[in-house]
Amino acid sequence: CFNSGSSCEKCDFETNLCKALQESNLQPGWIRRNGRSGMGPPYSDHNGNDSAYFLSLSSEMRSSSATLRTNVFLPTDKEHVCQITFHYWISQMSGTLVVGLQKLSEDTITNIWQVSGELQDQWKANTITINSTEKYEV
């Protein structure tokens, strides 16, 4: 859920990548699939639905990295807080999931959250709150 103030945009990948992640923001290696795809775990989404879609790294990408980039979010303030809640699954010990913030005036991406190799093979949820005085991407 991409939450800015009172509006909340839910993204479930059922029909497409949703507004926050366009096709152009999808690097090679990411696949939209479900638990019935025959590609190994996870065999369902975080609700236990084996026909529900999620994004997954292809098996060829095991040793490299791939990025998902959101569209541009507007600056945050007291009235417009940005909270992003996401579900994730890490299936290999060496895997690391990083959430980064890139302000439009900067070339660098600042890491704001990351997880690696803990509690394998189960869905976990995380919520991050973002504060930025200028437009940004995640």
From TrEMBL:
PROSITE patterns named among the record's database cross-references: MAM_2
One Pfam family named in its UniProt record: MAM
Cellular component, GO annotation: membrane
Annotated coiled-coil segments of the chain: none
MAM domain sequence ranges: 9-138
Position of the signal peptide: none
SUPFAM superfamilies on file: Concanavalin A-like lectins/glucanases
Protein name: MALR1 protein
Organismal lineage: Eukaryota, Metazoa, Chordata, Craniata, Vertebrata
